[in-house]
Amino acid sequence: MATASNGPVDVTAQRLRERGERVTPARLAVVEVLANTEEHLSAEQIGERAEQLRPGIHRATVYRALDALGEFGLVTHVHLGRAGTTYHLAGDLAPRHLHLRCSECGKVLDVAGDILDPARRKVLRELGFHLAPEQVALVGLCKDCFA
């Protein structure tokens, strides 16, 4: 994982250069926004915060930056159902985690990324299918709504 001295923005810039990709203000702003929040942000919310960080960055540029960073494996997204799609840092830029969404109140919880590893292995072994639960939210009831 990226260290404090070599934070996600610095690591991203380095990896983009290594790939021969452009290190743009929008790409760095997106990573900075995501590195500085624990919220589940939509592309629109990331765009708003990126514009605050670096005035003059247009929302469309932020969307393109999200797409590019996703292609490079630096940012990923998760579909939260009715709550929409949210983005977060990927790979060693952030801890691997999965999402649980309460179908009653809409709360989204992050859980350890390895929590479903036994099920993943079983599905792979028995069906030859590779699960990717990082891309979706598992839906159920949170403890407050279940009670």
Major β-sheet, in short? 3 strands, mixed
Beta fraction: 15-25%
Class of secondary structure makeup: alpha+beta
Mean pLDDT reading = 89
Give the CA-CA distance, first to last residue.
37 Å
Overview of the molecule:
The termini are far apart. β1 and β2 (85-89) form a beta hairpin. α3 (43-53) crosses α4. The strands form two sheets. The chain has a three-stranded mixed β-sheet with strand order 4-3-5, with no helix packed on it. A two-stranded antiparallel ribbon has the order 1-2. The chain is built from six helices and five strands, in the order ααααββββαβα. The chain is globular, with a radius of gyration of 17 Å. The longest helix has 13 residues, at 59-71. With 147 residues, the protein is an alpha+beta fold.
Sum up the structure in keywords.
alpha+beta, three-stranded mixed β-sheet, 5 strands
In short:
It contains six helices and five strands; from the N terminus they run H-H-H-H-E-E-E-E-H-E-H. It has helices at residues 8-18, 25-35, 43-53, 59-71, 117-127, 143-146; strands at 75-79, 85-89, 97-102, 108-112, 137-140.
